[in-house]
Amino acid sequence: MTTATAPRTVRPAAAQRVRARRGIAAVATVTALSLTGVACSSLGAKSIQAQPVKASRPAGSAQGTAVDDKTEPIELAELEGADGAVLTVTSVQRKAGGFLTIKGRMVNTSDKALNPMSWVAGNELVTKNPYSIAGATLADETGGKRYYILRDTDGLCLCTSFGPVFPAGRDVPVVMQFPAPPQGVQEVDLSVPTFDTASIRVTG
């Protein structure tokens, strides 16, 4: 049996002090959470390993973990590759420092495994960045310039690296970082070996 306890009377001045202390504690909690989020969002300048998720297209037996994402990304362009590979671009943004970051997803819509080695071009890139999307380039037709994926001091591309086998039904996020075209350039052509070329609009 629970014994009822008479409510304790709090004088007006004391009540104000209690509310003030609670407000300070709430602000401190929000600040701590914000700092934690910033610290966890930093990205090093190494090849970005693909994180597989459940395939969004019905194609074979997908491997990975299902992701519950209620926000549907905007599809800016879709590049169809050989043997059922599909690259969807969802974000093209300028970043501070003169960089252009492209994000999207790579999906294997076929019922057989693919070899990502075909998405790399050039001997040096193949040697240091096998199974990646380091062969991607951007072309500014108006300015007559072509841009290649950036690399760090070790020669590793600032782009997504896949494993030696890309299984049937696999769906992974893709990131590529290029030098940014001049501010006046609002559209570029994205090319990846064995894929179609697509025009994408630069935002940000």
What would you note in describing this structure?
The chain has 204 residues and is an alpha+beta fold. The chain is 17% helix and 27% strand. The chain has two helices and ten strands, in the order αββββαββββββ. A four-stranded antiparallel sheet has the order 2-3-4-8, with no helix packed on it. Strands 6-5-9-10 form a four-stranded antiparallel sheet, with no helix packed on it. A two-stranded parallel ribbon has the order 1-7. The radius of gyration is 24 Å and the shape is globular. The protein starts with 11 loop residues before the first helix and ends with a strand. The N terminus is likely disordered.
**Fraction of helical residues:** 10-25%
Strand order of the largest sheet: 2-3-4-8
- Could you tell me how far the N terminus lies from the C terminus, measured between alpha carbons in angstroms? 64 Å
Radius of gyration: 24 Å
Number of helices: 2
Class by SSE composition: alpha+beta
Q: What percent of residues are in strands? A: 25-35%
Instruction: Describe the main β-sheet briefly.
Output: 4 strands, antiparallel
Mean pLDDT: 75
Q: How many strands in all?
A: 10
